[in-house]
Write a structure and sequence with these properties.
It contains three helices and 18 strands. It has about 300 residues and is mainly β. It is elongated and about 70 Å long.
């Protein structure tokens, strides 16, 4: 979900110039050619991100930890089995004590812990930032999902990186760049969000985006991620047909000085679970499932 901070620069607002395309009711005219170029650039960045070090294609494992000792390495005797030939058979072990995870390397094994040689130390505690471990092409760190602690593993030499064929997109169509408004919520409002693990969380919703499409009015509840954008998890009638079955995501810039928001479905994108089985994606709340086909943005990728 942090993809947008680096790769989703909402440049459309800078393109509100002379009208070169069709104008609809309540729509600010845009330079359509410039707009299409910006969306094409966003698409290129999306594809580049997937095969970057922080992308989703290189994920090689997600291992949930148990309280106490969790051995890891490439050998089948381990609790956590890492890829063969890329790490010693018995590399070390993680120790879980409550919400703290420490790691210890076996003799003659050295890791990089946040870029420095180490044979162990604290890998996670509730107040820590992300601590990354590395051995050869492997990278791993701790993730927390409610009461579950797990190791997310990356392989920078993952075979799927070479097989990545790129994301397929719907043709860019300005008709899916919709103007709307925000119905702000009070600070206590939360909505239920369920993830693919079956965990249901109450998450802060800063408000509801309201927009018109094909003569009808629709609403999308927005989540607060603590930045200058709304985060939307939505479903529509293309899901499980042309787009990912469990919905798509969308970032929407905060309102401009007139209170207007731009809901650009040409930037609707796949959740990580479309690219890997080792993600823990949130699913659309029922009120965000639109009763029409949004034929814009990313189409499905792979068979996850």
């Amino acid at each position: 979900m942090n993809f947008s901070k680096s790769f989703l620069p909402y440049l459309v607002m800078g393109m509100l110039t002379g009208c070169t395309g069709p104008k609809k009711q309540n729509e600010t005219p845009i330079d359509v050619d410039a707009y299409k170029k910006e969306i094409a650039n966003w698409q290129q960045q999306r594809n580049a991100y997937q095969v970057s070090e922080n992308g989703w294609v290189n994920l090689a494992g997600l291992f949930w930890l148990k309280e106490g000792i969790n051995s890891f390495g490439s050998g089948k005797m381990n609790d956590l089995i890492f890829p063969q030939d890329k790490i010693p058979e018995q590399a070390g072990y993680f120790v879980v004590q409550g919400n703290t995870v420490t790691v210890k390397a076996n003799p003659d094994v050295k890791f990089l812990l946040n870029g420095k040689d180490s044979d162990g130390g604290i890998l996670f505690h509730p107040d820590s930032g992300r601590i990354m471990m590395a051995y050869g092409p492997l990278r791993w760190f701790v993730i927390k999902r409610e009461d579950k602690l797990g190791i997310r593993l990356r392989d920078l030499e993952h075979p799927l990186l070479k097989e990545f064929k790129g994301i397929e997109f719907y043709p860019v169509d300005p008709v899916w760049r919709l103007e709307g408004r925000v119905e702000w919520a009070d600070s206590s409002r939360t909505i239920e969000i369920t993830n693919v693990l079956g965990q249901t969380l109450q998450q802060r919703s800063v408000g509801t985006l309201i927009f018109d499409y094909a003569g009808k009015t629709y609403r999308l509840d927005a989540l607060d991620e603590g930045n200058d954008e709304f985060f939307i998890i939505f479903g529509d009638e293309t899901n499980a047909r042309e787009t990912y079955g469990a919905g798509r995501y969308l970032y929407v810039p905060l309102p401009d000085s007139t209170g207007r928001v731009i809901i650009d479905f040409n930037k609707a994108y796949n959740p990580p679970c479309a690219f890997t089985e080792f993600a823990t994606c949130p699913l659309p709340p029922k009120q965000n499932v639109l009763p029409f086909a949004v034929t814009a943005g990313e189409k499905n990728y792979g068979n996850h």
